[in-house]
């Protein structure tokens, strides 16, 4: 397929590489930051333009990979008639595109994408949806060329998975951040925790999470919990989160 990519950030870069690797033809990269568009277009061997430039109207698919805020700013500049236009956001309805095309949808990568050092060999889960059955079929077939892990998910299901993704990724990473800061201040080596982090995540490939629960809260080990809370008295934010999560675990 011939593809135009709107955006030049992490999602646009990773998906662009996958699209190019799968032998599709990328015609153009468009970004409000012309310098970023130029860098990505050089890598993908295609033309580029900033938001004031002329969009190539000869593509089969237009992939909009911009921030949620920028998505709401799309205007008649991007009107594409009957062209298939999709965005890549997890929490935004496909209908945000209905004023710029008659065929629209979503290609949402359920993964935290980073343009630096991204492993292109992994099958990134791709959730697709569109406003017509024909468009869904086209988009699903396209997605299967860049990943072996493709599912159809409407706006409601995609939003629910986006919530779950925040819990398992963003919230978990926040806990890593707090633990890292705590270790630094207490003279402990955070890297000693990495094998534990990796082992806990890997176990989820073969077990459901509640089977893997360990620790003083699940054992209702009050003495150890009290020791931990005393240590955390100087860290009110961590102390508060520790109490809340402990209560949640013990209530189950």
Largest β sheet strand count, sense and barrel closure? 8 strands, mixed
CATH homologous superfamily assignment of the largest domain: NAD(P)-binding Rossmann-like Domain
* H and E string: EHEHEEHEEEHEHHHHH
CATH architecture of the largest domain: 3-Layer(aba) Sandwich
The CATH class of the largest domain turns out to be Alpha Beta
Number of helices: 9
Number of β-strand runs: 8
Q: Count structural domains.
A: 2
Question: What does this molecule look like?
Answer:
This protein has 252 residues and is α/β, with parallel strands linked by helices. It has two domains: 2-153, Rossmann fold; 159-251, ProC-like, C-terminal domain (N-(1-d-carboxylethyl)-l-norvaline Dehydrogenase, domain 2), CATH 1.10.1040.20. Helices cover 45% and strands 15% of the residues. The chain has nine helices and eight strands. The protein has an eight-stranded mixed β-sheet, covered by helices on one side. The model has no long low-confidence stretch (mean pLDDT 93).
Attribute tags:
252 residues, alpha/beta, Rossmann fold, N-(1-d-carboxylethyl)-l-norvaline Dehydrogenase, domain 2, 2 domains, 8-stranded mixed beta sheet, 8 strands, 45% helix, elongated
List the SSEs and their pairings.
Blueprint: E1 2-6, H1 10-21, E2 25-30, H2 34-44, E3 47-49, E4 61-64, H3 68-71, E5 84-87, E6 103-109, E7 126-130, H4 133-146, E8 150-152, H5 155-186, H6 194-203, H7 216-219, H8 222-231, H9 236-251
Parallel strand pairs: 1-2, 1-4, 2-3, 4-5, 5-6, 7-8
Antiparallel strand pairs: 6-7
